[in-house]
Amino acid sequence: MRSQLKKLxxxxxxxxxxxxxxxxxxxxxxxxTCDPGDQLYSAFGHSAIxxxxxxxxxxxxxxxxxxxxxxxxxxxKFTQRTLDYMLSVSTYERFLYEYNYFNRxxxxxxxxxxxxQARQLVQFLQINYLPENKFYRYDFFYDNCxxxxxxxxxxxxxxxxxxxxEVNPQQKTFRNLIDEYVYPLPWADFGIDLALGAVIDVNAKxxxxxxxxxxxxxxxxRAIIVGDGPNRPLVKSNHIVLEFPEKxxxxxxxxxxxxxxxxxxxxxxxxxxxxxKKRIFKGFDIAFFTVFGLLGLLIVLLWFFTxxxxxxxxxxxxxxxxxxxxxxxxxxxxxxxxxxxxxLLFALIMANLALVFWIFGWQSxxxxxxxxxxxxxxxxxxxxxxWEKFRSLYxx
Length: 396
Description:
By secondary structure, the protein is α+β, with helices and mostly antiparallel strands. The protein folds into 2 domains: 2-169 and 206-242, endopeptidase fold (from Nostoc punctiforme); 256-391, no CATH class. Helix content is 48%, strand content 14%. It has helices at residues 2-21, 74-80, 92-101, 115-128, 145-157, 174-182, 186-195, 213-222, 256-277, 282-304, 324-332, 338-359, 369-385, 387-391; strands at 27-34, 46-53, 58-66, 84-91, 106-111, 135-137, 161-162, 224-225, 232-233, 235-242. The strands form 2 sheets. It has a 7-stranded antiparallel sheet. A 3-stranded antiparallel sheet has the order 7-8-9. Strand 2 (46-53) and strand 3 form a beta hairpin. Helix 4 (115-128) packs across helix 5. It is elongated, with a radius of gyration of 27 Å. The termini are far apart.
């Protein structure tokens, strides 16, 4: 008896949703959409499925946006996109407690499913929650907490689900869609634009926009159930579950635009002083090109050594290039080698190419890199054209 009880306790977390749903005959299924939070991981909002069993008076939330922090090599796997997310289940009360604590609004759309559709949906979630099925390989754009829910309903409703998409929707790239949410987080915005490549500078289809919870909420609001009696809206009613005053966002001075322009102006002054005093200030160049070389190394790692599809073809590498590390090392020497001048010309051309790629729309760069490009062009020009003049003075 004790042995059986012990086994039951071990598997209880997995059979819990099955217990409460096993004999239920009357379900109410809802889509929950949660407002964005203050941190980058929560900046895009969240989606979950609420299932109410009216017969047994039970209320659960199925959540595809969870992962295990205790996973071995968690941060390595997160960076490489080898970290698995999972479907979790909690009570509705517990789910709301977290969002109420962080002052994040929650909206509910009750769905007008017939009893058979609701039953099939619950059965789908039950099977999906099994230990061998609950994990999935997360992809921010194509397989996340929102798109998983969309796929569930497409699987259950099939041809009966008509998204009723707008005829002439506003065209937005994946990068435009991200920018709508990270604008209050300027440094995160800069980092995202630095890490993600040209592959996200394509227009997202209406269905693809549903990777963002707000857009999926809007899509559910337009959707229609067809071929199941008279056509009817997918959403039966809308409710505001939690609501908080809108947070005011203000841009402080410590942001990439201000910081990099101040930096560029400082470099211009430094270069002018160096030109007048016939000094190179190689310590600055060593530090500057080391930092940009390390950024380039990061871009290469994200491009070629991870499974992220969005970090491919990242032309930020034209200005943040790993070879700048070699240049920095060469500048550290007491004398300049002849090849260094050729590399300076190469770096100058690469920085100008970045502007060309931007102008022709091959990749959209973060606007704050303009002063950084100007610094690269200025310093490579300064060293290249004053090579012979300052070569004998390079021992400072």
